[in-house]
Amino acid sequence: MRMQTAQPPGADNSRKAGNSVEKSSAFIDRRIAVAPMMDWTDTHCRYVHRLFSPAALLYTEMIVSTALLRGDARRLLEHGPAEHPVALQLGGCDPKELAAAAKIGTAAGFVEINLNVGCPSDRVKNGAFGACLMLKPALVADCVRALRDATALPVTVKCRIGIDDRDDYEFFSAFVDAVSGTGIDALIVHARAAILGGLSPKENREIPPLKYEYVHRLKRERPELTVILNGGLSQVAETRNHVASGLDGVMLGRAIYHRPALLAELHQAMIDPGRAVPEPREIIERVVAYAKVCARRGIRLHSITRHMHGLMAGREGARAWRRFLSEVAARPDAVPETLYSALPILNQGIAA
């Protein structure tokens, strides 16, 4: 649960070869990833998700490079060995700042640096980064070059298929050409355009039409590029079919957050057929042990259990479980063992 600090934050553990960085050859399994989600995918959320899949690639929330350089890097980058592999997603548009942030992230022990070029929120738009950067492919390319020069870790980009009225394949293809020419290790594509004028972030996840065909066409035309599909995925069979059809992997977000058992089902279907989907009781036992360690650091139980509302999703007792978390586990004086008092809900299947 401590931030990984093989070297002090800010140190550069990249291996130099002349004026360039010798890239890491470490293998990352990209078949399944859990998306970065603001205010959700913190260290405790990632611990819970890791219990459902030992191999899925997990991501931090988007961390703005300026905040990382000028704020509390240790707090922002907090993560523990049990969460790994974990990738760091950065937001920003200044190549020098991004490079400095990547060095801090590298020293902190992450396995990948990802650049956000897809977030449509007003906060990101006002900062001149996120999805609006799709209109500035040359700047994105400069940012990626700076990241690659700063770290030996894989550098990836997460983007949309377009922005506002530029959602044609030609625009998307030209953007990819500009960015992939810098040598990115993977491209993660949310297969919707970002509508910055008039839609909220939530609406931007639901209203713009999904165009999976753009992503599949991109992979066919650029077979050497590692392409990960994101957006609208929620079913095991459909998700597995995208990979079977040629894509290198999938990234799911809210579907997993609201029903984490889906992550275990995907792991079973796509990585290890012999791995059983864990039962809620198994998850609770692991979380109690984890929460005891956190409690010694003054961390409230609610900080962990707020990420567990979906544990019983799709089962009888789901509503009673959510009520228990909201009314009992969220109390300031709740201790880790409090979770054991919810076992009757799990064992007896109280009607939802």
Largest sheet: 8 strands, parallel, barrel
CATH architecture of the largest domain: Alpha-Beta Barrel
- Mean pLDDT across the residues is 89
Strand order of the largest sheet: 3-4-6-7-8-9-10-11
| Class from secondary-structure proportions | alpha/beta
Please write the string of helix (H) and strand (E) elements: EEEHEEHHEHEHHEHEHHEHEHHHHHH
Number of helices, counting only DSSP H or I runs of 4 residues or more:
16
Through-space gap between termini: 34 Å
What would your notes on this structure say?
By secondary structure, the protein is of the alpha/beta class. It folds into two domains: 15-270, Aldolase class I (TIM Barrel, Alpha-Beta Barrel), CATH 3.20.20; 280-348, Up-down Bundle (Four Helix Bundle (Hemerythrin (Met), subunit A)). It is 39% helix and 14% strand. The chain has helices spanning 43-50, 65-70, 73-76, 95-108, 122-126, 137-150, 169-180, 201-204, 212-221, 236-244, 254-258, 261-270, 280-295, 302-305, 318-329, 343-348; strands spanning 15-17, 20-22, 32-34, 57-59, 63-64, 86-91, 113-117, 155-163, 186-194, 227-230, 249-252. The strands form two sheets. The protein has an eight-stranded parallel barrel with strand order 3-4-6-7-8-9-10-11, surrounded by seven helices. Strand 1 and strand 2 form a beta hairpin. Helix 4 (95-108) runs parallel beside helix 6 and helix 6 packs parallel to helix 7. The longest helix has 16 residues, at 280-295. It is globular.
